[in-house]
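User: I'm preparing a small set of examples for a lab meeting where we compare how different chains pack in three dimensions. I only have the primary sequence for this one, and I'd like the structure in token form so I can line it up with the others. Please keep the answer compact; I'll paste it straight into my notes.
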Amino acid sequence: MSLENATAKSISSGPDRRRLARRKRVDVLVARTGFVVTLTVLSVLLALIGQLAVEGVGRLSWQFLTSYPSRLAAQAGILSAWVGTILVMLLTALVAVPLGLGTAVYLEEYAPKNRLTTLIDINIANLAGVPSIVYGLTALALFVYEFRLGQSFLTAGLTLTLLVLPMIIIAAREALRAVPPQIREAASALGATKWQTVKHHVLPCSMGGIMTGLILALSRAVGETAPLMTVGALSFIAFLPQPPWLSDVPFISFQWMLDPFTVMPIQMFNWVSRPQEDFHVNAAAAGLILLLMTLAMNGLGIAVRARFRKRIRW
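Assistant: Understood. Below is the structure token output for the 314-residue chain.
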């Protein structure tokens, strides 16, 4: 008797047929449950966004985007808040991305597998789950009091760097591990050094996963409020930081990094905490702008990730 006939005869027997039918019913039940849960989550999310849009879209205007906060709700705007958000995220990305990517490459490609690296792995995983307020308190003691950086853009960027660094390292390491070892072996067989293998083969092949981790980490950072309130973010700033350029030599100034700051979530929290209904409308409009900024960051990251993935042919 051939193998196919033996298998068909085994499945056609009563107990096996009932077992197969029961497994198919379980598959259908799991698929339908997942669909219902996904639909429920999307419905709640769309309802929240819809309510935010209904309340705040009427307040959106050029005057709202280009005005400073005010005690009068009709004249209040978010100019200092959205400029502060962009600058803080820029500093966070400039510090967190090189540090996170460099740490991931070292731990995954160069570091020996011993008890020390195992201890480092465990601590990085634990740091990813630490509440954000703990990072705020750490940054307050370290950057504000110890290094005397003050309640500035630089302090805010370094605080958010502490927050997102574990997530970037973990995501980058997972992306590096996903690269098939045959690529490293082939590069080594052709005489490439360790760094040449990482630079020309491993990093380009893993860039899609790395970009995904960066997007998720920075998207979380842009909405964080607790650590920035801890290090001294202000809710009422009627001026912009000093410009990064000068009319005289050296033409570039970093003084703006030490200026006081505010960000969109802090401005929204200030307006929501006020009893006047008009300020709540302002908070809804600011929420829409923050949502658009987050979507724009995600869209840019997805576009970059897709471009890198197109170059990969396994």
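A couple of notes for your slides: The chain has a mean pLDDT of 85. The CA atoms of residues 65 and 303 lie 27 Å apart.

User: Perfect, thanks.
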